[in-house]
Write a structure and sequence with these properties.
disordered N terminus; 535 residues; two-stranded parallel sheet
Length: 535
């Protein structure tokens, strides 16, 4: 009966429909899950899971009342290979010996679904459940040996092997929230210079850009503000976290930003790559945007960002050889820059150029140090008094760089709910604020949402990932263009609170999620009235 209950919960079918389940679910996957569930039940571990689950359920209730985030549920699975063979047959045993990763995935799925069906926790996520597999009676089962070329499997090792990778280390502090873990990761950028809560939107954007460095759609970053020294410090620090980075600090020395195509005196054609090519896949850090104005490089950079193609300079290619057409290569790096600009500037040329930058870069990140002065000063004073500047940070730069490199190649897909929210937000915003949101915002928001999902170690972009990105957008729009009649609730830009930043951001995004849902429903029309099915 336990197996029937599990199948009913897992696949949403009645007990009567179990007889015809082969028509709806791949037989092999179902058979493997059934085999292990039979062993799991008859070995008494299903009852053990239920007992431990009730204790975990009480802890969840206590954590929710205190508005705390709990640890994941850990369950040790003891597998006696001889008993597994007797109770489940040879098929699952063969899978465990020859494809242990696939077998572990099946076990993880069975434990998670069994726990969710036995308890009154219907929204228990797979990531909240961790399994620890302990094998017994290995010596009596034929195994493969490591010296046999091209053969893998399980073998018996005498001793203890312990390893903790950076992803596992930080997964230990991952909490049951779609935003808290990403918030914690981003907040530690340049923590020796600024408090974790200071200039948080820009930190968030920079880390998201790096998390997307292996994608075909790089995320460009533009920071604006009256004082750009903070943006300079943060970008300088963040670019070293990328897989590769190039700094284009002096146009007069570095040459063309795309590269040069030329013929030499012997008639050979040469291509000299510029920073936009050499930085791939990573970051091309431009620094101050204003320095490119005199050499007319701004139009070259904007053209590369708009088209996604980098053009080589053919001027001065020499008289030898035929005339060179400008070759192009795909843009595979994120372009970062900052610009000293004030929203109250009355210069018409500055305003026009600002709107041009917004249309190309997307919504910029506003660096406003006026609200952060007290917060930064408090940290400097504390460091001077107790020497805290010498302390090792919780997350080091090398560990953060390793983590970003690992998740950058994670393939992700966008869920229907996330896609609906992106399109609904674009339609709603273009209706109420047509001059604020650029035309290319849909692809930029999608790329940022994919990066957020990667940072959270998910392979699917959820509704919550898009909410986090839209929060950054609305924060910037509010500072750049001011409030309108549909502006979200007031933002606490300094993030000053007694609660830790991850918890505060979770609470803030929960509130913002409700607002964005009503915002899109009211302005985008009935076509977007059903998208948030993940709640």
């Amino acid at each position: 009966m336990a197996a029937l209950g599990w199948l009913s919960y897992e696949f949403g079918i009645t007990h009567q429909e179990c007889a015809s389940i082969k028509a709806y679910i791949p037989l092999m996957q179902l058979k493997l899950q059934e085999d292990f569930l039979k062993y799991f039940d008859q070995s008494g571990q299903l009852q053990k899971l239920q007992n431990m689950g009730h204790k975990y359920e009480k802890l969840l209730t206590k954590w929710q009342k205190r508005k705390e985030y709990g640890k994941p549920f850990r369950f040790p699975v003891d597998i006696d290979l001889k008993s597994l063979l007797e109770l489940s047959g040879p098929q699952f045993l063969r899978l465990l010996l020859h494809e242990p990763l696939r077998a572990t995935s099946v076990i993880h799925r069975v434990v998670h679904t069994s726990l969710a069906s036995l308890l009154s926790v219907p929204d228990l996520q797979l990531e909240q459940v961790q399994v620890i597999i302990r094998l017994h009676s290995i010596s009596s089962i034929p195994i493969y040996h490591p010296h046999v070329s091209g053969v893998g499997g399980i073998m018996l090792l005498n001793g203890i092997l312990i390893a903790m990778t950076t992803p596992i280390k930080y997964s230990e502090i991952s909490v049951n929230s779609p935003w808290a873990f990403v918030t914690a990761i981003c907040s530690y950028l340049a923590v020796d210079l600024y408090p974790t809560s200071a200039f948080f939107p820009l930190k968030y954007g920079l880390i998201l850009s790096i998390a997307n460095q292996a994608s075909n759609i790089p995320i460009a970053i533009l920071a604006v503000g009256e004082d750009t020294s903070v943006a300079s410090h943060l970008m300088n620090r963040a670019c070293y976290l990328a897989h590769r980075h190039q700094t284009f600090s002096c146009p007069a020395v570095s040459g063309p930003i795309g590269g040069v195509a030329r013929w030499d005196e012997k008639g050979y054609r040469w291509f000299e790559a510029g920073p936009l090519i050499l930085a791939a896949p990573g970051v091309c850090y431009l620094g101050d945007w204003s320095k490119f104005k005199q050499r007319n490089l701004q139009s070259t950079i904007l053209s590369a960002l708009e088209s996604g193609q980098v053009s080589f300079d053919t001027q001065g290619s020499g008289p030898v050889g035929p005339t060179l057409s400008a070759p192009t290569f795909p843009l595979r790096c994120a372009v970062w820059t900052y610009w000293s600009w004030a929203s109250h500037s009355r210069k018409q040329a500055d305003q026009a150029h600002f709107h041009t930058l917004v249309n190309v870069f997307g919504i910029p990140f506003v660096v406003d140090d006026k609200n952060e002065t007290e917060n930064v000063a408090s940290q400097i004073l504390a460091q001077a008094m107790d020497g805290s500047d010498k302390k090792e940070p919780i997350i080091t730069n090398s560990e953060l760089r390793e983590y970003l490199a690992m998740i950058a190649n994670q393939p992700v897909t966008i869920s229907k709910e996330a896609s609906q929210l992106i399109r609904g937000y674009f339609v709603a915003s273009r209706r109420v604020r047509p001059n604020c949101l650029p035309v290319g915002a849909v692809s930029t928001i999608a790329a940022l949402s994919e990066a957020h999902a990667r940072l959270a170690r998910r392979d699917t972009v959820l509704y919550a990932d898009v909410v986090a990105v839209l929060y950054l957008y609305e924060t910037a729009i509010l500072k750049l263009f001011g409030q309108c009649y549909v502006s979200p609730p007031p933002f606490n830009s300094s993030y000053q609170s007694e609660l830790p930043l991850p918890i505060q951001m979770h609470n803030r995004l929960e509130e913002f999620s409700s607002w964005i849902d009503n915002y899109v429903r009211s302005l985008a029309g009935s076509n977007f009235s059903y998208f948030n099915n993940e709640e």
